[in-house]
Every structure is written in structure tokens, then in C-alpha cells.
Amino acid sequence: PQARAGIISTVEVLKVMEAFVNEPNYTVWSDLSCNLGILSTLLSHTDFHEDIQAFVRDVFSPIGDRLGWDPKPGEGHLDALLRGLVLGKLGKAGHKATLEEARRRFKEHVEGKHILSADLRSPVYVTVLKHGDSSTLDTMLKLHKQADMQEEKNRIERVLGAISQPELIQKVLTFALSEEVRPQDTVSVIGGVAGGSKQGRKAAWKFVRDNWEELYNRYQGGFLISRLIKV
């Protein structure tokens, strides 16, 4: 927050972040992840965007290597949360080994050979979508349609915005207003697009403006419309 307020430089903040590479605490990493996400958003309109992705890969890869992909004997709930957070961060940032493993596990999950545990689904989904194509998106929409549990549908809805190509971003936004998505969950899909990339943010803003009447009538000035504006 101090860096955003212009009190201390971003460089100083990044130096402090580097000091936490051996930190085992989930709350600390969650905070680092959130702040790096804000920084990445701010830098997405500059030449430094790829530099910040490289920084994310450097900072998160030691803890990612230590945690691995599979639960270890005696680990607690926070370790599972931390694994999901770290793998998702590395995957989105294009960490090669994480991307390859996520694609392998996703394929096995879709084929029914080895179903992903609940805590690994979001990081795997977000990774394959971020670096995926139209067939990846189609597969995710198929998983959404087939999901028996609303929890799984919501999980998929929150990550669809990670897709990068402009025409696929439009497809996700159209899906957000379709009958496949409950009205109370539409905001999550649009918010995911807005937070997914620079292109997604522009597309989501245009989509909200173009469909403002329908969205406003749908939510009648309630908390969901204010949440939509916030995202």
C-alpha cells in the first residue's frame, strides 16, 4: 500500500518481497501474492509486464519446488492452500515446469484417468486457460456443463477470465450472461475477465457499458451491481 501511495519505491518493495523466499507461512504468501497481483495490474500497460512475471517466477519457484504437487504426510490444511496459491501463481506467470505438469494433470482429469483434488483444480484450470486456446476453453465450458456440484461450476466460472485471446475473452463474456450461469454468478465471470489481463479489463469494461441496461435491470441497484463496478 505504501508503494501505491508513492511513499516508498516499488524497487524497495520488491527487495522486501525477495527476502520472504524461505517463508513457510500461508498468510504471508497470500499477502505477497495479492500485492504482486496489484503491481502486475499496474504494470500491465508498461514495458515492465514481462519483467514482473519473471520476478514472480523467481520468487515463487523455491517454495513451489519445496511443496511439490502432492500432499506430504502430516501436512495441514494451510499447506494445501499454500500449494494451490503458489502453483496458480507460477502457472499464470508461465513457469515452464508448472505449466507442463498442469497440462498433463488437466488431460488426465478430463479423460477421467486421475481426477484432480479440489485444492489443485483452480491452479490447474487457471494455468491451462492462461496459456490455452479455443479447445482449452471449450473443454472448460464442457466441464462446467457436466459438473454436478454448484461449487465446481463456481470454481470454473471464477477462472474462465484467465483466457488470453481477444475472441475467446468475448466468448467468456457472452457466456457470463447466458442461461448456463446463475444471475448471481454472472459478476464473478465478468470480474474474472477484468482481472485476467489488460485485454480482458478493456473488454469487460466495454461489455458492461454495452450491456448496462440488462445488468442494471437484473440487479436493481443491489450489492451485486456495486461489486461489478468495483471489479
UniProtKB/TrEMBL annotation:
> Which UniProt key words apply to this protein?
Aminopeptidase, Hydrolase, Protease
A GO cellular component entry from the record: extracellular space
Residues of the ERAP1-like C-terminal domain: 3-230
**Membrane spanning stretches:** none
Q: Name one Pfam family in it.
A: ERAP1_C
Could you tell me one molecular function GO term of this UniProt entry?
peptide binding
Family that this chain belongs to: Belongs to the peptidase M1 family.
Protein's recorded name = PSA aminopeptidase
Q: Organism source for this protein?
A: Alaudala cheleensis
Q: What is the lineage of its organism?
A: Eukaryota, Metazoa, Chordata, Craniata, Vertebrata
